Each structure stands twice: as structure tokens, then as C-alpha cells.
Amino acid sequence: MTALLKILRAGPGLTLQDRGRSGYLDVGLSRGGAVDRLALDEGAALLGQSPDCAVIEMAGMGGDFEASADMRIALTGAPMRATRDGTKLAWHASHLLQAGERLSIGPVQAGCYGYLHVGGGIDAPVCLGARAAHLSAGIGAALSAGDVLAIGKDKGSETGLLLEPDNRFDGGVVRVVASFQTHLFAQAERDRFQSAPMRRDARANRMGVGLDPEGGGFHVEGGRNVVSEIIVPGDIQITGDGTPFVLMADCQTTGGYPRIATVLPCDLPKVAQAPVGAALRFQFVDLEKAVALERADAQRRAVLSRSRRPLIRDPHRMTDLLSYQLISGVVAGDEDDP
Amino acid sequence: MTDPQPPLSRRAPEVRTIGIAGMLVSFGDRLSEPANRAALAFRAAVEAEGWDGVEETSSSLVSAFVRFDPLHLSHAHLRQQLEALLRRQDWYAADLPTGRRFWRIPTVFGTDLAPQLGQAAQAAGLSEAEAITSLTQARVRVQTIGFAAGQPYLGELPKAWDIPRQTTLTKRIPVGALAVAIRQLVLFSVATPTGWQHVGQTAIRLFQPEVPDPFLLRPGDEVQFVSTDAEALATMRNDPHGGAKCEAIT
Question: Quick one: closest CA in B to A131, which residue?
Fold first, then answer.
């Protein structure tokens, strides 16, 4: 029988996501998918499964969930307060959710997007090659209370593993490459783009993230008349009033606002996860360096599962507690931490 | 005064990067018929080459776009391949893609369904009746699909329609709206804010994720907007094609 995950309560920004659908740019459909791609890899590493599995993306607020059968879960991305039948659960970790247990996930404690993964992935209908909701294109819908999600067959069994997350939840330096419209901006504006600290403003969603640069917006000479051109996620477009917007997973496929630079894919999760008010600073790197950085990032993601380590077991969950010899191996307390 | 720019057919196309995983081959810096044909034909040629490391291609109004994996195909190598392909023929003189179709799409012009016909006609120096005649006689081509899923940019309209976008955005233009600016029409696949002027309303659904062939129009298709009334349009809303008829262009 298919295991089910029932949604008892849902925050407003809960959607099914995966790596999105590619191959539809020529018909105006952007790739979409999880805004924090690294979180997909982290969840896959924790559960020992493919990063193609569909997950629940939670924008800011979580929800309550109940399992119809025992299932493995992993929690990644922006840390949120999570409990299982009232007992606190570690974030960036995998756990067993038993039949009938209530998983309760609160608002984010840092960052913006948290992810709930299940062993076997969420088995929703595939539309154009992916399960990801793409709300601006009219594909799928936000998840809501009462929804029941089928879970795919889980081939793994391990739980209780922890992953040290790549810290990307409080802004910082974001590497960018020059794009084909960068030259439309005067050198002084490009310099200021690198030197000016910017704060993530409140205008942000899966399509784009607005920034508030110190010293005001950026000016472009004649940039209002450029022909509409291809957009890629990570492009930083400068809108009519000079505000930079970093375009994200569900962005439009073409646009007329000039773009000053493009964020490297490996640094895009940092933009996605920067909370309102967090400081971001942009740094141009050349193409060669950018490719090297992407290569290093791909290699790091490929071996994420090697850095898993066991969670300290919670004595409350140890039903076989009495069989343990609890006071042997007493130590002096000044030994090296292993 | 002579035009300082050489004719497009003699200007070298530009190959530029977009992000770290994209290459853009541009055939002009403003929309023209030869540049659009070149972009469509060159994109089809890249697609046919099937180069290793190329993941996806598309075309915009004046450019072909190639998305690739820079960890497996270097920028230098892809650039070389693109430049060699550019030299193969005069892309500005290329034929339009094959498999194109001609669509007739019923449209209500003006009325409260398309409230900006009057102001758009005035901007074009036409009466409303002349504007409708001009817009229904034009046989326009899908120059690109972009911005939103299935949404076409259509052109090119007669010179009179070289009218600017509005300076203040319309807050919400409905699905199926036909809007005009800069000698082009956009037929909206989603409800969205826009600076384009709403002159017609259709019942067409350009993107239906739930059906086997979800995208109605393709770049290169030709379209004529046929005048209808509000009552007829209301019944066409039950038809996913919104009463549109299509035939193959041979």
C-alpha cells in the first residue's frame, strides 16, 4: 500500500518542488524547481536517494504533517523549529516518522526556504517532465491543509544522520559574471555595484528577489530602449527606478530591463535564502574563474553523503534504553574531543 | 544624412555569453524581419547539429540562445562551433522554419472587453474603424514565444503602429488579451501588469499544462485576428482554442 503524507496545516508558501523542467524555454516556460538547489542535494545525501525526488518547499512558514505509514524524512534548507509529537527534531538531519505521528514545522529561524524530503520522494503527477509547481505559469497549486500526498517506494532505511549545512542563511558575498548587457552601465556604476552594500528588501518571491542598494539605484544610459532578450536565472535586472532584482527559478524567459550581471549558480542559494534586511555584496569574477568555482561546487555536492554523521540518539526515543550499560567508560572530561 | 549603420545583412552577428551556461548569437540590436528570420533559422541549425554539451536552445526576437554545460563544453570550443556555423550561409536570407501553421483567431476589438482601442488608434493616427481594419488585415508572424508560457510576440504591423508602450502600467491585463506597441502585438497567456495597450480580446488559451500538446503557437506560425462580437466570443470560451482555426502553411 502506498504510504501517504497528510497535510494538517499549511503555511502560505508550501509547494512541491524538484529540479524543475528544462527544454521549454522556446515556448516561454522557465525551468522553475526548488529555489535552493543545494537543499535538494543535501536531502538526497541524507536519505541516500536521487536529488530528482520531489520535496516540499516551505517559504518562511512550515506546516503540520501526519504519516499514514512509517516513513523516513529529512529536513534541509533554512532551519525551522520542528517537532515530532512534541519532541524537538534536529534540522539538517534525517529522521523516522512513524505511522500516526505528527510532524510540526514552525517558521524559519534563519534564511527563507526550508525543505521537507521523504524517503522515496513525493509521488505527485508529472507535468511536462517534472512535479514542481510553477505557479506563475499556472502549473500546480500551493499545498494546503487537507491535501494528501502519495509517497514513492523508499529503497533506503537509514535515519538519524546529520549534515553540516553550507551556511547560506544570512547573506554575504555573492559572485557574479558580467553579462552581455553589463557594458550598458558606465564603469562608475559597475564599480558602485560591487562596492555598495545592498540589503535584501521585502519584495521577494520565487520569481525574483529585490535589493535595496546603499546610495540609491543604478542608472543606465539608453537602457530603456534595448530589445527584449533572453533571461536566465541569476540575472540581475535593473528596473525602471534603478532597483536591482535577482531573477530566480520561476522568472520570465525574456525581458526588456537591462541586466548588470549574472549570479553564479553555486551562489544563487545564498540570494534565495538571504532574509529581509540581510546584507549582500556582489563581486565580479571572470568566466574562467566562474567555471572553476562551479566545477568545485559540483564536486562538493557529489560527495555530500560522505560528510554525513550520526545524530546523537535521543534517550527518550530509545525504547531499549535499559539494555544499555549507561555508566561504563566514565571519562575525566579533559580528553580531546574525537 | 545617411544611416551610419551598414545594412543588417552585412553586419557580423555577435556571439556573447549570458550567465556562465549560456551563449547568445544576436543578429541585430533592434527588431527587423531579416534578424528575426536569422535567429529562427540559426537556432534550428544549432538544434540539428546536436552538439555534445548543448542542453537546450531557443530563439528571441533577434537572437538564438544556446544553454550548455560549461563543465563539459568549454566556452572557447562552443564559440568556435557557433562561429563556424555562422560562416556556413547568409542567415539573414534564411527560409522560415518548416511545419508552420496559419491561425485565424476570433477577436473582439474595443468595447469594454478591450478598453484601450480608442487611445491606441489615436496614437497611431487612425480612427477606431481604420485601426480595426488595419489590425484585422495584417497577417502577422510569431516572432518569438517568451516572457510567459506560450505567449507570442507577433509582427510586424504597419508603420503607423510604431507607438510607444504606456509610461504607467496597466495593473492587470486578462488572459487572452491582444495588446499593441512598437509595431508588435502580444497575445497574453497569463493575467499580468503590462505597458502594452489592450486593443482586442480573444478566448484563446495559449498554454494548457493538462493537455498532451500544451503549447498552441510556435515561432514562425502566422496569425490573422478576425473580428467578432462579445456574444460569439462568450460561446468560444468553452473551446480551448477559443474558436481559432488553423491550417498548415505549405
Answer: B209
* pLDDT for the residue numbered A321: 52
Residues of B in contact with A24 (CB under 8 A): 149
- Amino acid, single-letter form, for residue B143: Q
Asked whether the beta carbons of A256 and A214 are under 8 A apart, the reply is: no
C-alpha cell, B128:
477606431
Nearest to A294 among B31, B61, B71 (CB): B71
Q: How do the domains of chain B map onto residue ranges? A: 8-93, 101-248
For cell 543588417, name the residue: B8
Mutate which: B60, B67, B183, B185, vs A, most A CBs within 10 A: B60
Q: DSSP secondary-structure letter at A312?
A: P
Rounded (5°) CA angle A191-A196-A201: 130
CA B228, B229, B235: angle at the middle one, nearest 5? 95
Taking CB atoms and an 8 Å cutoff, what residues of chain A touch B218?
27
Cell numbers for A241, please give them.
527606478
Contact B49, B78 (CB under 8 A): no
Give the bridge partners for B225, in sequence order: B105
Q: Does A23 touch chain B (CB under 8 A)?
A: yes
Q: Do A137 and B61 touch (CB under 8 A)?
A: no
- Give the one of A25, A227, A234 whose C-beta lies nearest to B58's C-beta: A25
> Which one-letter DSSP state was computed for residue A13?
T
Q: Which CATH number fits domain B8-93: 3.40.50.1980, 3.30.980.10, 3.30.1360.40, 3.40.50.300?
A: 3.30.1360.40
Give the residue on A whose Cα is nearest the Cα of B57: A26
* A208–chain B nearest CA distance, Å: 14
ipTM of the complex: 0.89
Q: Tell me which of B98 and B231 has the higher pLDDT.
A: B231
B55 → closest Cβ in A22, A287, A290: A22
Residues 6+ positions from A89 with CB-CB distance below 8 Å: A75, A82, A83, A95, A103
Residues A99-118: tens digit of each pLDDT: 999 999 999 999 999 999 99
The more confidently predicted of residues B10 and A101 is A101
Are B133 and B124 spatial neighbours (Cβ–Cβ below 8 Å)? no
Backbone φ and ψ of A54, nearest 5°: -80, 145
All cell numbers assigned to B87: 560562416
B71 contact residues in A (CB cutoff 8 A) = 291, 294-295, 298
Q: Chain B within 8 Å of A302 (Cβ-Cβ)? A: no
User: For the stretch B78-117, what's the b/e string if a residue is b when 16 or more beta carbons lie within 10 angstroms of its beta carbon?
Assistant: beebbeebbeeeebbebebbeebbbbbbbbbbbeebbebb
Nearest alpha carbon to residue A62 among A95, A99, A111, A108: A108
Give the best residue of B16, B20, B65 to mutate against chain A (max A CB count within 10 A). Answer: B20
Neighbours of A23 (CB within 10 A): 15
CATH of domain B101-248: 2.40.100.10
Read off the pTM.
Answer: 0.90
A127 touches chain B (CB under 8 A): yes
- Residues B89 and A296: their CA atoms lie apart, in Å, by 39
